[in-house]
Amino acid sequence: MERLQKIIANSGYCSRRKAEELITQGKVSVNGNVVRELGSKANYDDVIEIDGVMLNKEVKKEYFLLNKPRNVISSVSDEKGRTTVVDLIDTNERIYPIGRLDYDTTGLILLTNDGDFANHLMHPKNNIPKTYLAKIEGIIDKETIDKLKNGVVVDGKKVNIVDFKIKKRDLDKITTYISITIIEGRNHIVKNIFHELGFEVIKLTRTNYGFLDLGNLKSGEYRPLTIKEIKKFYGN
Ligand code: URA
Fold it and tell me: What's the distance, CA 33 to chain centroid?
């Protein structure tokens, strides 16, 4: 059993709030009986009608890869009215981002309306590596490299650094570009790793998520995932 407004929203018909309005207005019936109480529950197999029209509970599953620009928030909506990753994608389905990138982080983010897929990707047991390119203030020295090799403790938990590579040391601007691959998905994890090592990340881009990369997508551009890519995440 699930709350009626949730079933309606999950079908993609409208938002949960709008569904609540429809219920209180007496426009929704379950198996022929009008339901006006907001706490009411129903089954996904029940016949739900809105204004006499049967609700289509077959949701089309969608999967997108977006190159997230800077100053875009990784959520479905934002109370401060900032642009969200969902705003950038032209769809009528209720998609959401799989995990988060910080407001000022750019790069590869996946969005879907398939909850099983999102859970599968975010489950730590699936060990999906994510690669980031970080611009660091300062020059990363041998001592810091050794620390990275041994893994860095952030908030009492060691982060295993799967791989890293110094891309460039700019001795004029006193910055280092480093790519770093981790499995961890904690918020601000890359910034916190370098913070622990005494460095500040001044720019951060996610370049890879598992076997996916940004390809030719420019900032703000997106593409659907292929069936082959979706299956590959399940090991098929
Ligand atoms: N690590 C961070 O610090 N920020 C991100 O957006 C992603 C990983």
Answer: 39
Q: What is the pLDDT of residues 39-87, one digit of tens each?
A: 899 988 899 999 999 998 777 899 999 999 999 999 999 999 999 999 9
- Identity of the amino acid at 57: K
pLDDT at 15: 84
Same domain, 154 and 188: yes
- Do 110 and 140 sit in the same domain of this protein? no
Taking CA atoms only, the protein residue closest to ligand 1 atom 4 is 188
Is residue 202 within 6 Å of ligand 1 at its C-beta?
no
For residue 115, the domain's CATH number is 3.30.70.580
Nearest to 209 by CA among 135, 137, 118, 145: 118
Examine the domain organization and report whether 79 and 31 are in the same domain. Answer: no
Q: Which of 45, 78, 87, 102 is catalytic?
A: 102
Instruction: State the pTM of this model.
Output: 0.79
Extract the tokens encoding 55: 């609700």
Tell me how far the alpha carbon of residue 113 lies from the centroid of ligand 1, in angstroms. Answer: 23
Q: Is 191 in the pocket of ligand 1 (CB under 6 A)?
A: yes
Instruction: Give tens-digit pLDDT for 185-209.
Output: 899 999 999 999 999 999 999 999 9
Residue 163, CA distances (Å) to 99, 166, 212, 230 in order? 21, 11, 16, 25
Q: The domain spanning residue 17 has which CATH number?
A: 3.10.290.10
Measuring CA to CA, which residue among 93, 81, 170, 184 is closest to residue 132? 184
Residue 161 Cβ inside 6 Å of ligand 1? The answer reads no
pLDDT in tens, 17-45: 999 999 999 999 999 999 999 989 998 88
